[in-house]
Design goal:
The protein is an all-alpha fold. The protein has one domain. The protein is 85% helix and 0% strand. It contains five helices and no strands.
Length: 131
């Protein structure tokens, strides 16, 4: 996917969808409930990200102690970081994706997609590593 298209989607389309969802939820449930849901999901999400992040860090250290390369832990960490960042942004779409990145079952699905994408990029030579 073209980087400009990704940036367009991330900074234009996603906020528009988020705004539409917040307006619709506010219309149906009321302003107070909508604000509560946005704040509550941020607090819960940040807490889950912290808990899951600590858990992944412990697994990472255990794998290192056992002499194994912790490649799954690194991908988990990336997805947890990404999910936590999404939870900091107000909105229902980003919160949903953020929570899915934190839950182990859905994170495993995303991890397999990410692994396949990275393998394809590496095979095609489309990865540039900046040092």
């Amino acid at each position: 996917m073209n980087i400009l298209l990704c940036l367009f989607l991330a900074f234009t389309l996603v906020p528009i969808v988020e705004l539409a969802l917040i307006i619709e939820v506010g219309r149906r449930m009321g302003t107070g409930v909508t604000i509560f849901l946005v704040v509550f999901s941020g607090i819960i999400g940040a807490s889950l990200a912290k808990y899951q992040g600590l858990r992944v860090w412990q697994q990472f250290q255990e794998q290192l102690s056992a002499g194994r390369v912790p490649e799954h832990g690194i991908l988990d960490g990336v997805l947890i970081l990404f999910g936590g960042a999404l939870l900091l942004a107000p909105g229902f779409l980003t919160d949903t994706i953020g929570f899915l990145c934190l839950l182990p079952a859905s994170r495993n699905y995303f991890k397999s997609l990410l692994r396949k994408r990275l393998e394809r990029w590496l095979a095609e030579g489309n990865v540039i590593i900046l040092r």
